[in-house]
Design brief:
Elements lengths: L15 H4 L3 E2 L1 E6 L5 E6 L2 E5 L4 E7 L10 H9 L1 E6 L5 H7 L9 H4 L4 E3 L6 E3 L4 E12 L5 E13 L4 E2 L2 E2 L7 E3 L5 E3 L12
Antiparallel strand pairs: 1-13, 2-3, 2-6, 4-5, 5-10, 6-9, 7-8, 9-10, 11-12, 13-14
Protein name: NADH-FMN oxidoreductase RutF, flavin reductase (DIM6/NTAB) family
Pfam family, one: Flavin_Reduct
Organism: Pontivivens marinum
Length: about 200
């Protein structure tokens, strides 16, 4: 099968997200200039550079109460900071709760029953029990093709790792089993790993 996205795919559901999988989930926490807090998952997310460490996520779609975007991007526009929380398998239901299209005044930490902790290098909350969290200073917000599509880039200014996830000096993903986004309503979980040595190493 071949299709041109501009012409449509002719399938019951868009296969694009199912093709680009699995995708890590950036559970983005932000605080607005008025002090309200937001927590939402984004699967258009990844790390993009080592030195300095940088991450990106993309927001698609808009809410009528957020001037052409969503709560996360609106808050980042106001404050210039955000935190990326890593999602473990055990936090899947809480993450899903925070994906709802809630009012901008809703506090997803409370809705999902999550404890929060204050970040150290930025003015923002993080998910206290997350296996890891990356405190970020926004460097760019890039408008993308299409309506309400924005790419957010940030430099990591602080890193939290849960103590039980650091074993023998290595951040061990099998200690918490990262959740990954597939297509449609599907997810996956990392339960095994293997290593490969690059040529010349």
């Amino acid at each position: 099968m071949f299709y041109r996205p501009a012409d449509g795919h002719g399938l019951p559901h868009n296969p694009f997200n199912a093709i680009v999988t699995p995708r890590p989930i950036g559970w983005i926490s932000t605080r607005g200039s008025d002090g309200t807090e937001n927590l939402a998952p984004y699967s258009f997310f990844n790390a993009v550079a080592y030195t300095p460490p940088q991450v990106m996520f993309a927001s698609t779609g808009a809410k009528p109460d957020r001037d052409g975007t969503k709560d996360s991007v609106s808050n980042i526009r106001e404050t210039g900071v955000f935190c990326v929380n890593v999602v473990s398998f055990e936090m899947r239901d809480a993450m899903n709760t925070t994906s709802g299209n809630w009012e901008k005044t809703a506090d997803e930490f409370d809705l999902a029953g999550l404890d929060r902790a204050e970040c150290q290098s930025i003015a923002c909350s993080r998910v206290a029990a997350a296996p890891a969290a990356l405190e970020c200073k926004m460097t760019q917000i890039v408008p993308l093709q299409g309506d309400a599509n924005f790419l957010i880039l940030g430099e990591v200014t602080g890193v939290h790792m849960r103590d039980d996830c650091v074993k023998d000096g290595i951040f061990d993903v099998l200690a918490f089993n990262p959740l990954a986004r597939m297509g449609y309503r599907d997810y996956s979980v990392v339960r095994e790993k293997f290593s490969l040595t690059r040529p010349g190493e």
